[in-house]
Amino acid sequence: HIRRHLAPGLPLAEADPTQLRQVLNNLLSNSRDAMAELELEGDEPGITIRTTLTRPEKDQSTDGQAIRITLEDRGGGFSAKVLQTAFEPYVTTKAHGTGLGLPIVRKIIEEHGGRIDIANRKDGGARVSILLTRVTPKKGN
After folding, report:
1. pLDDT band at residue 97 under the 50/70/90 scheme
2. What pTM value is reported for the model?
């Protein structure tokens, strides 16, 4: 199950929708694979997707606005080694993976002027955070 917490009234991101769809499909597929072996209990969703409007502190080129997309899962999380090398080509924990998914995801996000970070959740599982800094202010603001 996927739970969505989508902020209303977000400005539009200046981005290629096909490439962002590829990013999200890859990340959701990784989360699904990470949870495939686990038996999740309760009604909690396996994956949560959240969007928020944020103001990055260090990036002055955004007029103070950015869109954050956060994906969290209840899988096993990232090992310490993977946390350090996940965005390098050919790094994979999958038996049949190529190790190119996360490097491609990072390249797409960076080509859109954004940033991507990975971490482990305190209560287990993984968190991927994407910051899209090229946004179009809503008319009337």
Report:
1. low
2. 0.84
